[in-house]
Write a structure and sequence with these properties.
The structure is a single chain. This protein is α/β, with parallel strands linked by helices. Helices cover 49% and strands 14% of the residues. A five-stranded mixed sheet has the order 1-2-3-4-5.
């Protein structure tokens, strides 16, 4: 997402996974302590019931973690992103936006689908896609005449699974409220990082 940072790093950073790691550790310690206290207070019934409950929770989590369910909730692996065609990529981005709380409308097209989205704060987002080939930054912005009477902030997001060139970055800087989402940032977004956090890094 960052227009200027190096593109040679892949995957989430340690600081991105640290909160989840700390939360998991705290949860395990809390559950263990609760089971121990329950055992001392009421005997073996509490630990057995607690373990049964945890088994149910894990089973539900595994079911939700299956590839189909995971993708429907807006989580994709890097390999899954690479295997998508342009229509599949548009659907994946729509799901990721919904995961982050956006209301999304997909405007399908044979070779260049677009998305229109709006969040609870009233921000409007137009998403354009570029194939793996070199993007075309000199194209007109999508819906440039739409919603002229609306005062809501309007953003444009250009999604590209590859790397943007310097001329693409210069083009984006000349546009108003335009952000470039390259392959690295797309993978982080698909891994679970919120779009707002990615946009904040470039503001």
């Amino acid at each position: 997402m960052d227009r200027t940072r190096p593109r040679d790093l892949t995957g989430p950073r340690f600081r991105d996974v640290l909160p989840a790691l700390a939360g998991t550790t705290a949860a395990v310690c809390a559950v263990t302590a609760a089971l121990a206290v329950g055992y001392r207070a009421a005997g073996i019934v509490v630990p057995v019931a607690g373990v049964a409950l945890m088994v149910c929770v894990v089973a539900i989590g595994v079911r939700r973690g299956r590839p189909g369910s995971r993708r429907r909730h807006g989580h994709y692996t890097a390999e899954e992103l690479l295997a998508l065609d342009i229509q599949g990529l548009a659907l994946a981005v729509a799901r990721m936006l919904r995961r982050d709380g956006w209301r999304v409308r997909l405007l399908p097209a044979p070779d260049r689908p677009r998305l229109c989205a709006r969040n609870a704060a009233g921000h409007r987002l137009h998403v354009a896609f570029r194939p793996v080939a070199e993007p075309l930054p000199d194209e007109d912005r999508p819906h440039r005449h739409a919603h002229r009477d609306s005062a809501a902030p309007q953003l444009q997001l250009v999604v590209h699974r590859g790397m943007f060139q310097e001329r693409d970055i210069r083009w984006a800087h000349r546009q108003e409220n335009t952000f470039l989402l390259d392959g690295q940032a797309l993978r982080r977004w698909a891994h679970g990082v919120r779009l707002d956090d990615l946009l904040a890094r470039t503001s």
